Amino acid sequence: MYAVVETGGKQYRVSEGSAIFVEKLDVAEGDQVVLDKVLLFNNGEETKIGTPFIEGAKVVAKVDKQTKGKKIIVFKYKPKKNYRKKTGHRQPYTKLIIEKIEA
Q: Pick from 15, 4, 17: which is nearest to 62 by CA?
């Protein structure tokens, strides 16, 4: 059984017990989150596709931790002008563990 949910402008394929990293959500660690934007649901026998979302379907997840991603380097440079600028960025993420899929 799996579902496709939308959060943070992205779509994720989830199943019970799986862990996903989503864009940062404003919730504390250990809290439950209900993702109600379910685009697709499959229980092994039938598949439901929403237009755009499935009414009454939801995915219950638990917040495992708030973390940051790997650092990326942003380097700006202009030739012959002695202009160099080096900065870094770490994207904040929320790790969710999927507990239950209800359709």
A: 17
